[in-house]
Amino acid sequence: MMKEHLYRWRNKQLREHTAVIDGEIAPTMVLKNATYLNVYLKKWLTGHIWIYDDRIVYVGDLLPKKTKRTEIVDCTNQYLVPGYIEAHAHPFQLYNPHSLAEYASKTGTTTLVNDNLMLLLLLRKKKAFSLLDDMQSLPVSMFWWARFDSQSALRDEEEFLNDEDVLDWLEHEAVIQGGELTNWPEILHEDDRGLYWMQETKRMRKVVEGHFPGASEKTLTKMKLLGTDGDHESINAEEVYNRVKLGYYAGLRYSSIRPDLPALLEGLKEYDGSFFDYLFYTTDGSTPSFHEQGVIDCCIDIAIKAGVPIEDAYSMATINPAQYFSLGNRLGSIAPGRVAHINFLEAKDKPTPTAVLAKGEWINFDGYAFQNRTPNIQWKKYGLGKMKIDWSFRSDDLFISSPLGMDMVNDVIMKPYPVKSESQTKQLPTDHDIAYVMLVDREGNWRISSFLKGFTTEIGGLVSSYSNTGDIILIGKNKDDMHKAFERMKELGGAIVVVQDGEIIYELPLPLQGVMTDLSMDELMEKEKELKELLINNGYQFNDPIYTLLFLSSTHLPYIRITPKGLMDVKKKEILFPSVMR
Predict the structure, then answer these.
(1) What is the rounded distance in angstroms from the CA atom of residue 408 to the CA atom of residue 534?
(2) Angstrom distances, CA of residue 433 to CA of 440, 478, 538, 552
(3) How far is the C-alpha of 523 from the C-alpha of 529, rounded, in Å?
(4) In this protein, which residues make up the domain named Amidohydrolase-related (predicted)?
(5) How many Å apart are CA 499 and CA 492, to the nearest integer?
(6) What gap in Å lies between CA 97 and CA 132, rounded to an integer?
(7) 85: nearest Cα among 329, 293, 282
(8) How distant is the alpha carbon of residue 254 from its chain centre?
């Protein structure tokens, strides 16, 4: 079958599509007697759906005259809805874009809009664009956004966030938005470069995604004036309502770190007005095991159970995000001209499908359309091989000294505390929850160390090449264990490794540049649960340690962070204790 050519259909294909309507060419598939949701009328209609290759070409009362080699499917007693859209994915949370897309498609999420941050950090632009293009051959639709900041304080940010590179990303056809604006305070006040990138995004008729947790109405208004179109950071129903009132699209989040959706929907019952058309769902980069309950299908289920009208609950997963991204002519509905992403349900109120069509192909639950296309994806082709670390720790590298430590308020928020008498011995006592913490350049050029309160009472050494910046994190009570964990991570070419009393008690290899695994989602979920249980049993006080590792160096969260430039006061953007060259 001739599939969509990268980002649009060619003239020859378009002529074939209309020839199907004229009866000159047989459709490749007909879905007979289909009760389907028309998202424009917000009604369930009955008709026949013709598909040619990867595109819906007809929806109505007629059946085709030619059906030679046409797959005919009787849809009696089924309910058909458009494929679901994950409008804000971070496809690098230990999993990779391919494994996340494969897993998501099995429960009906057939379009993902993805963060490009790790591609910026890890790949050259040419390799990254090759990956974007090749992913169009997958049965799902994969789109991306273009970051305007690193979400940390990098020593060499200009190397990958400059006018030429950002504009090249924005111009790529797979990139459909700019943002998310984790650096919005700078843009609001003095960052004219970021503002320029926003305006270029608008010039290209693409949307700008905000990141405005707790923002006031005045701030939201000013960011709207500067060009922002949507925001997914509402933490209560009032914030959702205020965003819609000001003309924003509002993403409702149900994620491992912020499972807000039920409370948001409950709170919205207090507000009059018809605002569902401007809402969409996101799981916002949840850690792997959170997805055991599904992806966007579980969000729809929550909405239906919260009393959202069924038609609106599905529209929030389909046509709403499609319209937000100006992709309504291709995605988000069962209508002529749209990509053939269709979910088959046993009941209107059961959004997890019993069968899925993606680009006109059946996604069966053994991973058919993925495994047959790319059974062994060649990650090295894109520069995503094992980390090559050709340096080792010196004796003075594990000398850890800092006047300030980081005290965990929750999984991701940390406040400073004064360090009084932390010893420089190899072993910290296990009668308290203070551990050594270090961030080290993956090239071995610099390091910054401090103390971390709340992560563990027992763990000797944990090393993670998975982090927001792609640098290496060391945490632990025992410097020998930390060193051994580092050496094992180095042998594996990237990993999360835990060492206790000189013994390796856990390892998760991350062979894709030390940030992602090549395991399936099902295998990864079990490994993540094992790590979480291990850490909680050894004094981790919260629920999502993967997010702690990711956001240790993220400067979009309060109050203190350990970054490549040093220990940073996030609010003041001041380096309190600089990193040192090795």
Answers:
(1) 18
(2) 22, 13, 10, 17
(3) 10
(4) 79-362
(5) 15
(6) 10
(7) 282
(8) 12
CA-based angle 430:436:437, to the nearest 5?
A: 140
Residues 6+ apart with CB under 8 A from 422: 400, 405, 428, 434, 451
**pLDDT band at 358; cut points 50, 70, 90:** very high
Identity of the residue numbered 66: K
| Whole-number average pLDDT of the chain | 94
Please state, in angstroms and rounded to a whole number, the distance separating the CA atoms of residues 248 and 475: 41
Q: What's the pLDDT score for residue 336?
A: 98
CB 339 within 8 A of CB 331: yes
- Amino acid letter, residue 225: L
Q: How far apart are CA 457 and CA 433, in angstroms?
A: 4
Alpha helices, DSSP H, located in 246-340: 261-268, 296-305, 310-315, 319-324
Whether 454 has a pLDDT exceeding 80, the answer reads yes
For residue 128, give the amino acid letter: A
Nearest-angstrom CA–CA distance, 3 and 471: 39
Position 284, amino acid: D
> 20 is written with which tokens?
């199907």
Please list the residues that pair with 49 across neighbouring strands.
31, 59
Give, as one character, the DSSP assignment of residue 342.
E
Task: Compute the distance between CA of residue 62 and CA of residue 58 in angstroms, rounded to an integer.
Answer: 9
What is the per-residue pLDDT across 75-87, written as a single tens digit (0 to 9) for each? 999 999 999 999 9
Count the alpha carbons within 13 Å of 521 in the hemisphere toward its beta carbon: 27
Residues 6+ apart with CB under 8 A from 512: 96, 379, 384, 385, 494, 518
Q: For residue range 464-517, what is the model confidence (pLDDT) as tens digits?
A: 999 999 999 999 999 999 999 999 999 999 999 999 999 999 999 999 999 999
* Residue 510, number of CB atoms within 10 A of its CB: 25
Q: What's the rounded mean pLDDT across residues 311-331?
A: 98
Q: What is the DSSP pairing of strand 566-569 with strand 574-578?
A: antiparallel
User: 319 and 82 in contact (C-beta within 8 Å)?
Assistant: yes
Count of all residues that appear for the chain in the document: 582
Contact 139, 363 (CB under 8 A): yes
Tokens of 83: 């494929």
Region for residue 266 given its phi and psi (left: phi exceeds 0; alpha: psi -120 to 50; beta: otherwise):
alpha
**Residue partners of 39: CB distance under 8 A and separation at least 6:** 82, 311, 314, 315, 318, 319, 332, 333, 334
DSSP label at 478? B
Q: How far is residue 423's CA from residue 442's CA, in Å, rounded to a whole number?
A: 27
Are the CB atoms for 478 and 426 separated by under 8 Å? yes
Supply φ then ψ for residue 558, to 5 degrees: -75, 165
Provide the pLDDT for residue 359.
Answer: 94
